[in-house]
């Protein structure tokens, strides 16, 4: 099955700086990579996703990059704000006939004012 | 604004008691997932359904956990008997299915077994 590793486990950044979270996956057949943000006391919420036919996708201050050859993908948050403080999870979709997402262990991001 | 709803939001029970958690998926979604979240294990997939049929429940302890979808608007997760190690936050998620399976999570049920 798919194995997703996520680094770092915790990340503290100064407000206004950038934050980068990196994930690797093991199954070369995986072709959908969503990122979820979980705020305290809430369920994870999808913030951005990328499919294997593109290398980069942006949505305002967040962007995701994908390197299929190396089997890794990253989340970039620019101009961080206090409301970006949360736990972020990367995930990979396992295959054509399977509906499971494999999640990374999560990164706790703290934005210092 | 369509959302996944879960009840109860919090549950405190004593060891040995039965616990039932309920989930209402987003109308029109045909895939439903149950996850458990703990500090040690992170997000674990317990079971999931497509068109109300169970596709995979390999993540569930079979002797005490059961998951069902009595109809398209209700998914249940039962634990009988409950144990202290079952204490966790349980999330339900639903999705429209298809090749890129975006999942929408509910707010979770925080279970404490004393």
Distance from N terminus to C terminus of chain B (CA atoms, Å) equals 36 Å
Characterize the main sheet of chain B.
7 strands, mixed
Strand content of chain B: over 45%
Task: Figure out the total of helices of chain B.
Answer: 0
What's the overall geometry of chain B?
Answer: globular
Number of helices of chain A: 0
Q: Helix/strand/pairing class of chain A, anyone?
A: mainly beta
For the residues shown, what is the average pLDDT of chain B? 93
**Number of DSSP-assigned strands of chain A:** 11
SSE inventory with pairings:
The complex is a heterodimer of chains A (113) and B (114).
Chain A: E1 4-7, E2 10-14, E3 19-25, E4 32-38, E5 45-51, E6 56-59, E7 62-67, E8 72-77, E9 86-93, E10 101-103, E11 107-112
Parallel strand pairs in A: 2-11
Antiparallel strand pairs in A: 1-3, 3-8, 4-5, 4-9, 6-7, 7-8, 9-10, 9-11
Chain B: E1 5-7, E2 10-13, E3 19-24, E4 31-38, E5 42-50, E6 53-56, E7 65-71, E8 74-79, E9 88-95, E10 104-105, E11 109-113
Question: Overview of this structure, please?
Answer:
The complex is a heterodimer of chains A (113) and B (114). With 113 residues, chain A is mostly beta strands. Chain A is 0% helix and 56% strand. Chain A has strands at 4-7, 10-14, 19-25, 32-38, 45-51, 56-59, 62-67, 72-77, 86-93, 101-103, 107-112. In chain A, strand 6 (56-59) and strand 7 (62-67) form a beta hairpin. By secondary structure, chain B is mostly beta strands. Helices cover 0% and strands 54% of the residues of chain B. Chain B has strands at 5-7, 10-13, 19-24, 31-38, 42-50, 53-56, 65-71, 74-79, 88-95, 104-105, 109-113. In chain B, the strands form two sheets. In chain B, strands 2, 4, 5, 6, 9, 10 and 11 form a seven-stranded mixed sheet that branches. A four-stranded antiparallel sheet of chain B has the order 1-3-8-7, with no helix packed on it. In chain B, a hairpin with a 3-residue loop joins strand 4 (31-38) and strand 5 (42-50). Chain B is globular. The termini of chain B are far apart. The model of chain B has no long low-confidence stretch (mean pLDDT 93). The interface between A and B is medium-sized, with 20 and 23 residues.
